[in-house]
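User: Please predict the structure of the protein below. I'd like the answer in structure-token form so I can feed it into my own downstream comparison script.

Assistant: Understood. Taking the following sequence of 483 residues as input:
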Amino acid sequence: TYPIGTGPGSHLLKLGVEMGRVSADQFSPTSGRGVFRYRTETGNPDQATIGVGFYDPTSDRDARSSLSGWIAGAYVNDEWRVHSRLVLNLGMRYDAEIHTMNNDFTVPWASDARINSLPALQGLLNHGDRKDDLDNFSPRASFSWDVTGKRRAFLRGGFGIMYDRIPGFVPFGERQSASWRIYTFTNPNTLDPEQLRARVIAGGGTATPPAITLLPHRMDVPENRQWSLGVGVALARGLTLNADYIDQRVRHLYAPVNLNWTDTTRTPATRAISLAYGAITVWEDSARARYRGLLTTLAYTRDTTLAINLAHTLASSTADWDVQTIAVPAIAARQYYVMQRTSGDERHRFVLSGSMAMRYGLALSTVAIAASPHPYRTTVGEDVNKDSFNDDDWIDGKRYRVPPNVWRNWYRVVDLRVTKTVASVRGARLSVIAEGFNVFNTDNYSGYFGVQRSATGEPRPDFAMPSGIFATRQLQLGTRVDF
């Protein structure tokens, strides 16, 4: 941090650098000790499943996936006091992830002629030469203007680009699907996993077609472009009003697509690309999201004994997908990844909070919240488009439905806290705290049943009915020591 001058026209320069080492591993020996299925309660199993390493079938070391690399960052920021009433912040940040995309690993199917020449897989088979994402420059700017010069009305705003990290679970999935394979035996006549593993090494057993995880040769990290504009006004002594509009546009979010889905329109049903493999999941970086919100707060502070805040948020949240990690069949991806409301699209939220110091060492504080209903995911329940994937069979083309906008469907909760100071000796203070959460024991629905029909087409009686509630009334008593 380096100051240049004081008062109007001065600058406060801030510079920083960051370097970090990433090192992680994951151990998932699925079916490594054998899984046995019985048709009856007595007798021998009619099926056995065993997980065996591809490179080293005699141990379970192939079930361990590792990831290592470096993260680096640098920033510069100038807090420029242009005038006694105007402050500008101008900055730039740079982030890089080096070697975090499992670049040293070549997948075994890179040399498989059955899929290596398929146009849909070009640029997706890892040969250990993925590109690092090194172009993440983040300009940022903000301002604060004292409109009247009397510190009673402020206009503020800002713009910035922020980058996320590459999630490590994607390279983990690629490595594990390559090195750990599942084999099945019919009527194995043994319960010994080591015998099953020996049979696999000798060439026995039926290998379950491996599910493949693929990534592009170069993946961009998620990018958030955000701008805001706000105003703050002192209405009277101790009474202030603040209003801020925030707009976030996120791109390069990760979305999974299954290129080798099961096509049930054929007889018999078959894989779209190759029967030698199971699901071929490709992680793309093309999904988008957007959030817009107007935050309004009215605050009153009389003195140190009383403070009250009333806040309202009017918001809209949309995205190409939401809380979804199941790969969408490629044939339905264009219709699935479309901007629609998300399950977190809460249009209205009111929050009343306050604290008050009373006589006899008592202090009271409370938070009361009322929020409009959230959308919930809905599906027909049948595989209407015959792609062996029910999550893309929406009702009337909409991913979500919203409960009726009536008071019983709103989220309503009141929390209270009462604090009593019981002792104060030589600078130390002992307090007793009584707290109540959801003190009126309101039923707040946490979700709704979203499947309209059964797999055979019969209407489900629980469709659109509440499926759960948030926490009911809770009371607790505690102590606190300040010294």
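That's the full token string. DSSP finds four helices and 28 strands in the chain.
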